[in-house]
Amino acid sequence: MRSGMRGRVKLRPVVVEDHATLAALRADVELQHLLLANPPPGGDYDVAAWIVRRQADGAIWAIADLADDACLGYVQIAAIHRRNRHAHFGIALAPGWRGLGVGEAATIALLSEARALGLFKLLLEARVDNHGAIALYEKLGFRRVGTLQHHYDDGGRRHDVLVMEREIPEEPAA
Ligand SMILES: CC(C)(COP(=O)(O)OP(=O)(O)OC[C@H]1O[C@@H](n2cnc3c(N)ncnc32)[C@H](O)[C@@H]1OP(=O)(O)O)[C@@H](O)C(=O)NCCC(=O)NCCS
């Protein structure tokens, strides 16, 4: 696997220039089914409204190329539980940016953001056939909690879903 983008991406707030990239991700039916979501009904790709919804109980960042600030995808933290200090992690890259080290760099950066938010633990769900994503999460220290059987209905079939979790050390590992 190529790793050319490792160390060459950053997280930053979503700006209006990112909306076309993010709208394309929202309109990508196959991708949405990998994210255990569904494309918005009626072709409503209103990215601004989606960002506001994402921020209601979490946070979202654009993954940006350090060289030209272009948006390569996004990472999000959702469903923050304030007392237990856990939340759900999600990530999606635009198709041309996968397999280059961007997901790994962005997830590491996200762990720092989660620490800054005072979170103790991140959880995530991945379709059991999303082998690349699961390999990334295991590489970065997420552990398999268990499998939810027939959990995600994509409209045509039901998929088993793996639950994973990772605690966030108070200080970054040296
Ligand atoms: C999943 C996703 C975020 C991974 O990001 P990425 O930039 O493609 O992954 P990276 O290049 O950073 O890979 C980092 C590590 O993850 C693992 N990995 C990533 N893709 C892999 C693949 N297709 N097959 C096997 N391992 C893979 C490898 O361990 C890799 O380390 P290595 O390069 O030392 O072998 C990205 O492919 C994506 O956005 N996919 C579509 C959306 C999605 O599935 N999101 C997750 C939903 S749970």
> What is the level 1 CATH name of the domain at 9-122?
Alpha Beta
Please identify which CATH superfamily of the domain at 9-122 we are dealing with.
Answer: Gcn5-related N-acetyltransferase (GNAT)
Structural class: alpha+beta
The residue-averaged pLDDT reads: 93
Based on DSSP secondary structure assignment, what is the total number of beta strands? Answer: 7
> What overall geometry do the principal axes of the alpha carbons give?
globular
CATH architect. name of the domain at 9-122: 3-Layer(aba) Sandwich
Helix percent band: 25-40%
Q: Could you tell me how far the N terminus lies from the C terminus, measured between alpha carbons in angstroms?
A: 26 Å
Given as residue ranges, the uncertain stretches (5+ residues, pLDDT < 50) are none
Strand order of the largest sheet: 1-2-3-4-5-7-6
Question: Which molecules other than protein and nucleic acid are bound?
Answer: coenzyme A
Query: How is the biggest beta sheet arranged?
Result: 7 strands, mixed
**Strand portion, in percent?**
25-35%
The oligomeric state of the chains shown is: single chain
